[in-house]
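=== Structure Prediction Worksheet ===
Name of assembly: unnamed complex
Input type: mixed (protein and possibly other molecules)
Chain count: two
Listed entries:
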Amino acid sequence: MTIEVLAFGIVKDIFGRSSMPVELDEPSVAALKKLLEQKYPRLKQIASYMIAVNNEYAGAEQPINMHDEVAIIPPVSGG
Amino acid sequence: MNADLLRYSCQINLPGFEEAAQRKLQNAKVLVIGAGGLGCPAAQYLAATGVGTLAIADDDAISIGNLHRQILYTPNEVGQKKVLVAVEKLQQQNPQIKILAISSRINSDNALDILKDFDVILDGTDNFETRYLVNDACVLLGKPLVYGAIYQYEGQVAVWNLANADGTRTPHYRDVFSDVDAAQIPNCAEGGVIPTLAGIIGCMQANEVIKYITGTGEILAGKILMFDAQNMQSRIVKIGSVSKTKVTAIAKTQTVPLVSVNEFKALMNDNNIELVDVRMDEERLRFNIGGKHIPIALLEERFHEIDATKKVLFYCASGKRSAEAVKKMMKYNSNADAYSLDGGMKAWQESEYVK
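=== Predicted Assembly ===
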């Protein structure tokens, strides 16, 4: 299954773009995290970032469906 | 209408606002932490709207690079304490309210004592350590925290730790971002920020404070608002209605030993200093003052390259990453004599310019 992932903040720099397609074998947030962290080790180094599915905070167990909007949102520190 | 309410007549005329809401503002005590890009506009609107007691906390001085977004300050005030300049101007803006200056840095020793006297806290800080500290203190004290943060063209706003009717609390910062490696996330000085975004997000924060105090509208609790100034899109991500992350104590904040640009210039030819640039390759190429180059993301694996028998001085663009480097160094080698160049290359270049 291919899903479209939106990137925010520093994650845009890490991915090199603001959205990208991701091929998922197992349709869950945990699987997506694992896949992205393997491909982009810097994502793991941030230590924590939020995944939102259809504009709702998504825990690791949450399934992901084909047409869901998935956003990767990192913390931001500037003031 | 009372004479002292005249200046507020346009907000008192709002549906659902009236004189009672104005009285609530007059009786309210608000603490704005950080008098920077977010704190300046937030404090200006909170003063203008008639918050009775408004305290501003900041330990920093005004620098030239602040002026594009920190709109309370002028070039003549560069070098002065932000909080003193801010308080003076805000008092002129609204002589009817009480404005307090807190010029010491909020740390794990004083946070609870400073925050306890306020009804609501506004987070306009520029670093993760203080953000977590302020969040944890608000959770422990049961105070609502109006959060805002900016980076490049993107901002985040949320209201944390509001009381629910059943005695639980709405989510707080650690429910969303449990922990962070500050060295991995660039700040405004490093990644840049569009000045108007600071105004937009700061105003949104002031807006939530006004709504909370007056009991009007729907507060941004249990959610986080994301705003992108490049395409003007905003989205609200729902987090949930109840916090699931306990805070039992305040994490100890670490005081990083600093060396000022002037102190460093006096020591520059001292052979007993190990100078380390922790910025990224492209920043190093653009401008550097020498020393070893180890980007902070690689510091842990390359600690052995640093001669820790000398005084180690880390530098970066703003002093934030070099402060993180000092903390990492102390963790790796508790005997290390490590310092951070205060203000980084920004302060260095400003010192050259002023001269």
